[in-house]
């Protein structure tokens, strides 16, 4: 019997190894799987490469993970915000490596990994420092930059509802990077607020099929959300 429901976050994250590339869903706090991030902090894996849209806020969620010093590199679009001081301090001290990727390119590089696309050309970034050292090509009179997929060992994402087969639905914009990250990782671990009976989720509403999910963990919904974020 297929049952992807994990009894605890600790068990779901147990196989993450040192040196892993970990995709973490979320757009700022929206859709960020803070309980899974806290679990990863407790789990202790180090020398990690993190893929996320941002580089953390204040000292919660992703920023709390960065503060442990166990992240070697972060690949993201928006590393600096008003409260991104944890990342700022690490970066200026030379304690973390940054790969800056335009947001559309980030999403497409992740999607390409899941879709089996070897590489793709995009006009975004051409003529800037972001294209330095990359192959370029003129196509139909326009200049393009070759970009490669981003693969991950693990994806940590947040969904709204899941069943024991791992099928997932999301809550509005909290979906963001979750579906494409699930397809680009060797193992996807999702937190959900509700575990549905098998067959009760309308197949037409399933966004991430269970094929792409290894574990789901049920977490409670709170008024303010985990780690101080507003519930999403």
UniProtKB/TrEMBL annotation:
<dbReference type="InterPro" id="IPR004165">
    <property type="entry name" value="CoA_trans_fam_I"/>
</dbReference>
<dbReference type="InterPro" id="IPR004163">
    <property type="entry name" value="CoA_transf_BS"/>
</dbReference>
<dbReference type="Pfam" id="PF01144">
    <property type="entry name" value="CoA_trans"/>
</dbReference>
<dbReference type="InterPro" id="IPR012792">
    <property type="entry name" value="3-oxoacid_CoA-transf_A"/>
</dbReference>
<keyword id="KW-0808">Transferase</keyword>
<dbReference type="InterPro" id="IPR037171">
    <property type="entry name" value="NagB/RpiA_transferase-like"/>
</dbReference>
<comment type="similarity">
    <text>Belongs to the 3-oxoacid CoA-transferase subunit A family.</text>
</comment>
<protein>
    <submittedName>
        <fullName>3-oxoadipate CoA-transferase alpha subunit</fullName>
    </submittedName>
</protein>
<dbReference type="GO" id="GO:0008410">
    <property type="term" value="F:CoA-transferase activity"/>
</dbReference>
